[in-house]
Specification:
The chain is an alpha/beta fold. The protein has 9 helices and 6 strands; from the N terminus they run βαααααβαβαβαβαβ. The chain starts with a strand and ends in an 11-residue tail after the last strand. This is HAD-IA family hydrolase.
């Protein structure tokens, strides 16, 4: 029995444009310099308050970061509706999820820096809620790369971490998997480079979603 734990942003859905526009409006509201798109992509995967602090060069969250986080959350749905962002699936993701969802030897879960509400929206939009049996979000656990998201998903499903596989596009996903004692698969279509993923512990790299299937054989 295996537990496949998927990151969301940059792994299942291409949400960088939506995240960046919401971040841009948030920084503008607080009189901050507009972040570059590259800066936004670099923090995708972290919990929001930590991401906002990092984008301003601070390792720790301060009060204004908390205020900016609250503003970002209030804007997110508005920006999504304004610009008709739908956080589209990357090509091949639906077929891959469909192929593994019916297997009796495999459970599917999500480990994401999104809020629980944000993850639920993605799951409902793409009809994945019936396939994912467990999830941990930024509302439930410390930010990646802390291993809690993985270990709690394992505990809930009765799995051992050595039988869990984390699939993600960020260095934080790879670091989280290693910290938990799980296998890490980096995806090449997301927001970090292949070299960065390998340097941070990726056991394998998938260049297309269908390549993920062989790791569950």
């Amino acid at each position: 029995m295996k537990l496949a734990l998927f990151d969301c942003d940059g792994t299942l859905v291409d949400s960088a444009g939506l995240i960046h526009e919401t971040m841009r409006r948030t920084f503008e509201k607080f009189g901050k310099l507009e972040p570059r798109f590259e800066d936004t992509k670099a923090i995708v995967g972290l919990s929001l308050d930590i991401a906002i602090a990092r984008m301003q060069g601070r390792p720790h969250v301060e009060q204004q970061d908390i205020e900016m986080t609250a503003h970002y959350k209030s804007l997110f749905t508005v920006v999504r509706q304004d610009l008709d962002f739908r956080e589209p699936l990357f090509p091949g993701i639906r077929e891959m999820i469909d192929a593994i969802s019916g297997r009796e030897d495999l459970l599917i879960g999500a480990v994401t820096g999104k809020s629980r509400r944000g993850l639920n929206l993605v799951m409902e939009t793409h009809g994945f809620d019936q396939h994912f049996v467990v999830a941990r979000t930024a509302d439930d656990c410390p930010s990646k790369p802390h291993p809690a998201m993985v270990t709690e998903c394992c505990d809930e499903t009765g799995m051992n971490a050595r039988d869990a596989i984390v699939i993600g596009d960020a260095v934080y996903d790879m670091q989280m998997a290693k910290a938990a004692g799980a296998k890490a698969i980096g995806v090449a279509w997301g927001y970090a480079s292949v070299d960065e993923l390998i340097a941070n512990g990726a056991d394998a790299i998938a260049y297309h979603p269908n390549e993920i299937l062989r790791h569950f054989s």
